[in-house]
């Protein structure tokens, strides 16, 4: 999981770097296209299962939500807010995963989980207020990041169900291609980037497709197959901190202090969800 978290954190920085030169749709399409080709090459060399009707529907849900809408919303949000703040906001996703997993997968909701949800959402409010102080247009960036968090959660839960029978490589590859289809309306923008973009921009897109998409999502799916969706999603609370360090080193940007405070609340809320309820002791008489 450590490699996945580092690669996903680097994706926030790369997206922020490309955000002013490449449109959100073109960046999403380019990243997913590179990732899909790489994943297809690996999948052709392995076993492929025959899909059921329900699996096709879940793949469509996962691909449209997590690989399609998520990428476009995240890319657009990082044109308006900095990389670390976007990463902090997306960390509401694990809370939503825990709620959806409790409803649809039968995973337990505990008082600590509910308390963590309240604290984390308070953190989102603080971040929203901090970014509003830096310009009204930034509020739309906050909302887009929250949309990315919700679609990420939908993708994780649907992926968890798919992994009961399919391999992680199959799920990620098929969902990635569905994401490509979602982003096809921006194919003209991508052609313009390929024709007129700098070599550095193209290299960043290739990096996003190969490592944070093909490699990181495959490693994530492998780990998810062997644990609860809620517990797995909580590990991503480390991403904002890693992103903040990478953005400071590579982009020389630091969010407002109040946004960091809100981010810490988000992380604290997620940590609360990891607490286990105290066992009730019984006394024999």
Automatic annotation (TrEMBL):
The chain crosses the membrane at residues 26-44, 56-74, 86-105, 112-133, 139-157, 169-187, 202-222, 234-251, 257-274. InterPro entries: Alkyne_AA_exporter, EamA_dom, EmrE-like. Keywords: Membrane, Transmembrane, Transmembrane helix. GO terms for cellular component: membrane. It comes from the Bacteria. The keyword Transmembrane helix applies. Pfam families: EamA. The keyword Transmembrane helix applies. Residues 5-128, 140-273 form the EamA domain. Belongs to the EamA transporter family. This is DMT family transporter. It comes from Nocardioides pocheonensis.
């Amino acid at each position: 999981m450590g490699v996945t978290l580092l690669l996903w954190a680097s994706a926030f920085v790369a997206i922020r770097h490309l955000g002013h030169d490449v449109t959100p749709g073109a960046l999403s399409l380019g990243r997913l296209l590179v990732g899909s080709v790489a994943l297809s090459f690996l999948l052709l060399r392995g076993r492929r299962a025959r899909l059921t009707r329900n699996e096709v529907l879940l793949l469509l849900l996962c691909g449209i939500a997590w690989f399609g809408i998520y990428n476009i919303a995240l890319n657009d949000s990082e044109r308006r807010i900095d990389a670390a703040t976007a990463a902090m906001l997306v960390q509401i996703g694990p809370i939503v995963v825990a709620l959806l997993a409790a409803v649809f997968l039968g995973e337990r909701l505990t008082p600590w989980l509910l308390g963590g949800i309240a604290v984390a959402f308070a953190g989102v409010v603080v971040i929203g207020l901090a970014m509003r102080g830096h310009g009204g247009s930034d509020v739309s960036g906050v909302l887009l990041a929250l949309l990315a968090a919700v679609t990420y959660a939908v993708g994780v839960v649907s992926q968890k169900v798919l992994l009961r029978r399919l391999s992680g490589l199959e799920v990620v590859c098929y969902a990635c291609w569905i994401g490509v289809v979602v982003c096809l309306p921006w194919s003209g923008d991508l052609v313009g980037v390929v024709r007129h973009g700098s070599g550095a921009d193209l290299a960043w897109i290739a990096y996003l497709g190969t490592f944070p998409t093909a490699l990181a999502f495959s490693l994530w799916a492998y780990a998810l197959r062997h644990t609860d969706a809620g517990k797995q999603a909580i590990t991503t609370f480390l991403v904002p901190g890693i992103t903040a360090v990478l953005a400071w080193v590579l982009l020389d940007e630091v969010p407002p202090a109040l946004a960091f405070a809100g981010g810490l609340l988000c992380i604290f809320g997620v940590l609360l969800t990891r607490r286990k309820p105290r066992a009730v002791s019984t006394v024999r008489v």
